[in-house]
Amino acid sequence: MLYSPMRIGGLASGMDIDQIVSDLMRAERIKVDKLYQQKQVMEWQKADYRDINLKLRSLYNTSFDMKLTSSYLKYKAIGTMNDGTSFDKYFAVSPGSGAVPGEYKVRVEQTASYARLESSKPIAKPLTGDVLELGEDGKIEISEGKFEVTIDGVKKEVTFGGIYQESDINTLAADLEKAINTAFGWQDDENGNTVGIKRVKVSVTDDNKLAIEPADGFNKVQISLSSVKDDEGNPINDILTTLGFKDGDSYRPLNPHTSLKSQLAEDIGEGTISFKINGHQFEFGSSATLQMIIDKINTIPDVGVTARYDALTDKLVLVSKETGLGANIEIVDESGLFKALGFENTSASGQNARIVLNGTIVEKTTNDFTISGIRFNLKEVMEKGQEATFRLENDPDAAVETIKKYIEIYNETIDLINKKLSEERYRNYPPLTQEQKKEMTEKEIELWEERAKSGLLRSDPLLDRIVRDLRFAVTSVVAGQPAGMKSLADIGITTIDWREKGKLHVNEEKLRSAIAKDPEAVMRLFNADGENTSQKGVATRLYDILKGGIEDITEKAGGGEFQIYDDSILGKQIRDLEDRISSMEEMLLRTEERYWQKFTAMEKAIQYANQQSMWLASQMNMYAGY
Questions:
Q1: How far is it, in rounded angstroms, from Cα 273 to Cα 333?
Q2: pLDDT of residue 1
Q3: Using CA atoms, how far apart are residues 554 and 560, in angstroms rounded to an integer?
Q4: Is the pLDDT of residue 457 over 70?
Q5: d(Cα 62, Cα 539) in Å, to the nearest integer?
Q6: Rounded to the nearest 5 degrees, what angle is found at the Cα of 371, between the Cα atoms of 370 and 374?
């Protein structure tokens, strides 16, 4: 059936048909609104149940942790080096629950390391000039003049000149190096004292050429040479030419994203770049970039090596992914790439960590390992004659903090449930309909719904059973425990006021004393297992209760782990209400259409009567004239 959303009524009758139908439908909608309100109440209940279930799950997970020995048998290490200083510089120690209290002597002889290979010299080509030309007298004569040097964007004028024998080219290089560095603030004196830093290194190649590059230990940045020019832009001297360079020559750091071959100081030929690392074959075209090579090495997990380019030192670094003697790097340099990259060695191995513990040598492949329940983390090798001594003792404070946090979560859980069980129910505040919300402000809606949501789980039998079971579990005696360790009250965990409805309070001093006296008895009070409830520890009881409670609430309100379809009781009831609402909405549309049909028929009848009346009136007026 089709329903027209556009209707115009009252033209003949003069009545506000739209308002009349609206008022009639408001009365008809009361039943549907009640279903909407029932559905909303159920959805609020469902949300409340799920909030409680989240809290129960938190306590459930913590109860599982409290069943573990490590939550109670906690130790601390107290000791120093043999010279009285702290051993933290050399290793850290973390005793586990399986550690044995006592005295331990430790000497760190070796830390575990990765296998590592790297370039022995920078990769990028130095700025190399032409062969120095000798005069007829066999000398290199450089008329004193100026040229400009730009280092990392900073430009300075350099004054240089002198006469050098062919055998003094190294002296020429040293003087040029000094002149450039002096222009950038470096100074030295006769006693070898220096001020500032060296930025540039100048050397002589085998074929008597000057080579300029960043100084050892200085960042690899661009270095440019330029002539000092007159007003017309012409060089005022030919000092750069005499030194074998041209105006605009520059040293550029390696760019890992451009062709590697064109940037290497040594030639690697025109053919394929090929090599093996740990038996894995790699092949690249002659135009390959360094980044391409690095990425390929890093994308093959079985190689067991991580490659990276260190732009600061202009070197390629290869490091094994594991530490220890089993970590190896073996390179077969088939095309000479690694030789050109400055690698002097093509193989390397890692080393094991080694300590002497109470006179026994222990080796491990990593610096983080566990021995006899004690976790060691090695940091640095000790010098000869150094030794650390520490003593493992019970750490009641750590166990107290663990138990306190557990009790806090327990209290938060039962407080939440007790609040929902005792919350006031305001039955005069049902959920608001959409029509009602339109007539209210946001603040009024908020205050109304605050009361409408209150008390939806008041005196709920499911929650009441869970909280009663929890309270009984923490207050009853644990069978098989020694005297003075049979209940939580014996170790200082008690209730104080009945109005708190089971909230626990911790007497820290009494708890600490009990743990110091017999930590294993305190542990069993919480995590003991048995054939029946009386033999089980408090945490074990709570774990079982919470598991059942979570399942029951999930069955009632849904929200279980990995649940795709809500098959809970409330979920089914809500879907049933949605079906009923859908049917009633369809029925309301039909009812509204029926009302409109009746009023439309009335309008037509009135209009027809009006037409007849007008015809009779016109006839009577016509005959009245005779």
A1: 9
A2: 42
A3: 6
A4: yes
A5: 9
A6: 70
Three-state secondary structure of 551-585: HHHHHHHCCCCCCCCCCCHHHHHHHHHHHHHHHHH
Beta-carbon contacts of residue 66 (< 8 Å; ≥ 6 apart): 402, 406, 526, 527, 539
pLDDT, mean of residues 319-326: 95
Give pLDDT, residue 494. 93
pLDDT at 2: 44
198-214: b (≥16 Cβ within 10 Å) or e = bbbbbebeeebbbbbbb
Q: In whole angstroms, what is the distance from residue 555 CA to residue 217 CA?
A: 70
Roughly what angle, to the nearest 10 degrees, separates helices 519-527 and 396-422?
A: 30
pLDDT score for 416: 94
What letter represents residue 566's amino acid? D
Write out the DSSP string of 203-233: EE-TTSEEEEEEPTTS----EEEEE-B-TTS
Residues 247, 239: Cα–Cα separation, whole Å: 10
CA angle, corner 317, sides to 220 and 123, nearest 5?
Answer: 40
Task: For residue 273, give the 3-state DSSP assignment.
Answer: strand
Q: Tell me the average pLDDT across 332-351.
A: 93
Contact 342, 325 (CB under 8 A): no
| CA dihedral (282, 285, 289, 292) positive or negative | negative
Nearest to 265 by CA among 116, 120, 118, 117: 120
Q: Other C-beta atoms within 10 Å of 123: how many? A: 24
Distance CA 186, CA 168 (A): 23
- pLDDT tens digits, residue range 371-404? 989 999 999 999 999 999 999 988 888 899 999 9
- Give dist(CA 227, CA 225) in Å, integer: 7
Which residue is associated with the tokens 């040097």? 149
The structure's pTM equals 0.67
Asked if residues 205 and 173 have their Cβ atoms less than 8 Å apart, the reply is: no
All residues at 6 or more sequence positions from 399 whose CB lies less than 8 Å from its CB, including other chains = 71, 72, 73, 74, 515, 519, 522
pLDDT digits (tens, 9 = 90+) for 507-523: 999 999 999 889 889 99
Q: State the maximum Cα–Cα separation within the chain, in Å, rounded to a whole number.
A: 154
Q: Are 577 and 42 in contact (CB under 8 A)?
A: yes
3-state secondary structure of 391: strand
Q: What is the mean pLDDT of the chain?
A: 88
Rounded CA gap, 230 and 228, in Å? 7
User: What is the separation of C-alpha 355 from the centre of its chain, rounded to a whole number of angstroms?
Assistant: 34
Q: Tell me what pLDDT residue 320 has.
A: 96
Q: Please give the structure tokens belonging to residue 253.
A: 């750091």
Q: What is the mean pLDDT of residues 237-259?
A: 91
- CA separation for the pair 591, 24 (Å, rounded): 10
Of 258, 243, 324, the residue nearest 289 (C-alpha)? 258
CA atoms within 13 A on the CB side of 467: 24
Q: What percent of the chain has pLDDT over 90?
A: 57
Mean pLDDT, range 91-105, rounded to an integer: 90
